[in-house]
């Protein structure tokens, strides 16, 4: 993700997360930490005509990774793009030496929970009222050992172990 992606990312963000969308300023702050040696990694997926179809972000601090965001245009959901974005984050967390990868997902989003479970994430707790202003709880999930070999950058297929 680059600065010129922020406007189309924000269009998608506001459409997908109308109640708890990040602000433009939050994305600028996140991108400021994507430099070499920075704590963030952000990526976008685009359609053949260049439109932003999805995006994802990762924070890595002291060997622990946290999925900051992952989103796919609702018109393209179910086509595997979420898996592609998540694969990118898992690979990057492994490349940066993470021993675990955490994320929060809305308790009322079973589709996303199933995606994370396919990749080996397991529920470890609940954050009450995490998503505001809707006051929706977050399920905290953890992947203890990222399923990417950072030496070969080969992702194991989560459907086949």
UniProtKB/TrEMBL annotation:
Keyword Ribosomal protein appears in the UniProt entry: yes
EC number: 2.3.1.266
Domain N-acetyltransferase: start-end pairs: 1-146
Pfam families the UniProt entry points to: Acetyltransf_1
Similarity-based family: Belongs to the acetyltransferase family. RimI subfamily.
GO molecular function, one term: protein-N-terminal-alanine acetyltransferase activity
Name of this chain's protein: Ribosomal protein S18-alanine N-acetyltransferase
Organism annotation: Kitasatospora herbaricolor
Keywords in alphabetical order: Acyltransferase, Cytoplasm, Ribonucleoprotein, Ribosomal protein, Transferase
Keyword Metal-binding: no
InterPro entries (UniProt xref): AcTrfase_RimI/Ard1 (IPR006464), Acyl_CoA_acyltransferase (IPR016181), GNAT_dom (IPR000182), YpeA/RimI_acetyltransf (IPR050680)
Residues in the signal sequence: none
Cellular component per GO, a single term: ribosome
Superkingdom to which the source organism belongs: Bacteria
Enzyme class: transferase
């Amino acid at each position: 993700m680059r600065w010129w992606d922020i406007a189309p990312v924000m269009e998608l963000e506001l459409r997908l997360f109308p109640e708890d969308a990040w602000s433009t300023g939050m994305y600028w702050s996140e991108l400021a930490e994507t430099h070499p040696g920075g704590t963030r990694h952000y990526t976008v997926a685009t359609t053949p005509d260049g439109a932003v179809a999805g995006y994802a972000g990762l924070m890595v601090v002291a060997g622990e990774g946290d999925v900051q965001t992952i989103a796919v245009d609702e018109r393209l959901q179910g086509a595997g793009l979420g898996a592609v974005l998540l694969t990118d984050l898992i690979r990057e967390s492994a490349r940066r030496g993470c021993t675990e990868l955490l994320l929060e997902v809305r308790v009322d989003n079973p589709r996303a929970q199933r995606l994370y479970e396919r990749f080996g994430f397991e529920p470890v707790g609940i954050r009450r009222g995490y998503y505001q202003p809707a006051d929706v709880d977050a399920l905290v999930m953890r992947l203890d050992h990222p399923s990417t070999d950072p030496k070969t950058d080969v992702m194991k297929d989560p459907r086949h172990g």
